[in-house]
User: Fold this.
Amino acid sequence: MRFRRRARLDPGQVTDVRGRRMGGRGLAVGGGGLGLGAIVVYLLITLLSGGGGLGQLAPLEDQQVGQGDSPGVVSEECRTGADANERQDCRIVGVVNSVQEFWNGVFERSDEQYPYADTVFFTDQVQTACGAASSQVGPFYCPADQQVYIDLGFFDELQSRFGAGGAPFAQAYVIAHEYGHHVQNQLGVLESIGNDRQGPESRAVRAELQADCYAGVWAANAVDTGQIERLTQEDINAGLDAATAIGDDRIQEETQGQVNPETWTHGSSEQRRRWFSRGYEEGRPAVCDTFSGSI
Assistant:
């Protein structure tokens, strides 16, 4: 994945609070914490959680991270596509810009207004309107404050432990998936999930697969947004590999030694690959109806 060297980045779509103490004592889930033994399992199960992660858990402390109170690194050093080709954080800025440019166009063609959403870069832990979160959770979208959160060190951890997430487009797929949840939030999809949060045909799984499909749709149109110069088949394969790596069946087999579809929250590896592929091959959000019929 290469960015146009002279493309202008908009770092204003990213709030950089890395290195700041945001309060809290770690990850609180439904009023309780996670022991060290459960952290890795939770890390995997909640990867790419978005609407299927913190946003669907029991209400946590109603605290929200604010905009950075001083300029972060990205606002000073992530200015052009050339920067995005050289630095990981600038690359994520470029992806955020591209994804939101795409969805803004989709909403405009439907005579609707797309509400731009910040991505928050944080270190170790952060307070959100969905509660306290640590980097162990992985990237996520919080519907309550309509922001995407990510500790960029997560990609290094994901690659070293599980062999995924290192390729630039694998990271772009993650970000595009989370913004898929932002789109769903505007359409009322996340609210409609209710308590149907587990199982192979659950609305939670259907929402996650739709976000995968939306990520594929963006990929099909990414070059047209102006920031990205080209995507290769190797890039798309990296996205497919990432989707496969975080399927519920793959995670359960590796962490528990058995597969239990009744506890799925994101879908199988095959489903995640298939829905990303469908979005990429068709290039239209309309093909991402995961809520009708079998998935």
